[in-house]
Write a structure and sequence with these properties.
single chain; about 350 residues; mainly beta; seven-stranded mixed β-sheet; six-stranded mixed β-sheet; about 0% helix
Length: about 350
C-alpha cells in the first residue's frame, strides 16, 4: 500500500527592480541611486542652475523639511521651485538644514571665483557649499534685497578645485532667501597679491578741503606687483606702479568717503583691499564732534536698553564714531567699535561681558 504524499507550496515575495521616470533608478535594496538630473555631470567652469539638483529623492539627492514643492514649478519633488524673475527657475521657501546635491565634473583644476545669485525680501539668510565632505566656502550671507525676485550676486573668491567628478552640496544654514544659480568662474592659476590701505585708518576725520594722503602695502607670493589702483567710493582715483604705493586725494568735499586699493601682479591676478571709511567735515564743526547726542543721556538702569546716538550736528547727521562698552579709550582700544551716526547701541546692565568687574 502506497502512502499518500504531502505537497507543500511555499510562496516568497521577492523585491523587483523598477525604474522611476526622471527620479533615478532603484537598486534592489529599494534605495534610489543618485544620478545627474540631465544625464551627465555639470561641467565646471560653468553654471549650476539651483533647480537642477541630482535625481535620487529625499535623503539622497536633497533634503527638504516638507514633502511638497511649495512653488509648484519644474519638478514634482520635495524641493520648492518657482518661476524666477530673471528667467528660468529658482529654489525658495528654504529652511535651516535643507540641502541639494549636484554631480559636477571639474574640467580644469585651479583657482575659481564662485558667484551665487540670491534674493531675499528682508534680512536674508546664510548658506555654505560643500564639495564632497569639505566646506569650500565657509558661511556666506545672502543679503536682503527688498524683494523675493530682486537678485544680487554673492561672490566667494579664490576657491581651489582639483580636476575630476565630484558631488557639490548647497547647504541652507537658515531660512529667508532664494537661490537662482551657482556659477564657477575660472581665474588665473597664479596666486593673487595681497594689498591693504595703511593710511588713513577707518574712522579718521578730516577738514573740508584738506588734502588726504593714501598709502597702501602690496606684495605678491609668486611674482611681483606691477600696479596698485586707488578707488574713492568705487571710482578710480589714481594708480601707482612702484612702492611705496601712494595716492593723493585733493580738496575733498564734506561727507563720508570709502577708500579701496587694488593690486595687480605680473601675471594679471588682482585683489581688492578692504574698505577704509573716513569723514570729511567743516572746520567750524570739529569741536562739536567731541559731544555727540545720546538718548537717554545718563542714569541708572537694571534692564537692557537701546541708546540712540546722533552726531549733534544738524547740518551733518552722518559722522563716523568710535565707541567702547568696556570703559576703554575708543581712540586706542582694540575693542573699539566703528559705526556711522545716527545709530542705536544695545546696552545690557546685567552683563559683565567685556567690562571690568
Amino acid at each position: 500500500m502506497r502512502a499518500k504524499g504531502i505537497c507543500l507550496l511555499v510562496l516568497m515575495l521577492l523585491p523587483v527592480s523598477v525604474r522611476s521616470e526622471n527620479t533615478g533608478s532603484k537598486h534592489d535594496s529599494g534605495i534610489l541611486a543618485q544620478t545627474p538630473f540631465k544625464g551627465a555631470p555639470i561641467a565646471l567652469p560653468g553654471r549650476i542652475e539651483a533647480e537642477d539638483f541630482d535625481n535620487g529623492g529625499e535623503g539622497v539627492a536633497y533634503h527638504d523639511l516638507d514633502p511638497e514643492n511649495q512653488g509648484g514649478a519644474y519638478r514634482s519633488e520635495g524641493v520648492d521651485i518657482e518661476n524666477c524673475g530673471e528667467g528660468g527657475y529658482n529654489i525658495g521657501w528654504v529652511g535651516a538644514g535643507e540641502w541639494q546635491e549636484y554631480t559636477v565634473h571639474v574640467t580644469v583644476p585651479g583657482f575659481y571665483d564662485i558667484d551665487v545669485r540670491t534674493a531675499a525680501y528682508s534680512q536674508g539668510g546664510f548658506f555654505h557649499i560643500n564639495l564632497g565632505s569639505t566646506n569650500i566656502t565657509g558661511t556666506q550671507q545672502a543679503p536682503g534685497t527688498g524683494d523675493w525676485q530682486v537678485y544680487t550676486t554673492v561672490t566667494i573668491p579664490d576657491v581651489t578645485l582639483t580636476a575630476g567628478q565630484k558631488v557639490l552640496r548647497l547647504v541652507c544654514e537658515s531660512d529667508g532667501f532664494n537661490v537662482h544659480y551657482i556659477e564657477f568662474r575660472k581665474v588665473t592659476d597664479t596666486l593673487k597679491p595681497a594689498v591693504s590701505i595703511t593710511a588713513p585708518f577707518s574712522g579718521q576725520v578730516f577738514s573740508e578741503g584738506q588734502d588726504i594722503s593714501i598709502t597702501a602695502d602690496a606684495s605678491d607670493p609668486d611674482g611681483q606687483v606691477v600696479r596698485v589702483e586707488f578707488f574713492l567710493n568705487g571710482t578710480l582715483l589714481a594708480e601707482d606702479h612702484t612702492a611705496p604705493y601712494t595716492a593723493l586725494l585733493e580738496n575733498p568735499g564734506v561727507g563720508i568717503l570709502d577708500l579701496e586699493a587694488r593690486a595687480t601682479d605680473n601675471e594679471g591676478a588682482s585683489r581688492m583691499s578692504g574698505k577704509v571709511r573716513i569723514s570729511v567735515i567743516r572746520d567750524t564743526l570739529l569741536p562739536r564732534l567731541e559731544k555727540p547726542d545720546f538718548s537717554p543721556d545718563r542714569g541708572f538702569y537694571d534692564n537692557p536698553l537701546d541708546v540712540s546716538v546722533t552726531s549733534g550736528i544738524d547740518s551733518i547727521p552722518q559722522v563716523m564714531l568710535r565707541y567702547t562698552l568696556d570703559g576703554s579709550d575708543p581712540r586706542t582700544s582694540a575693542s573699539a567699535i566703528l559705526s556711522t551716526t545716527p545709530m542705536s547701541v544695545r546696552v545690557d546692565p546685567q552683563s559683565s561681558a567685556g567690562r571690568p568687574l
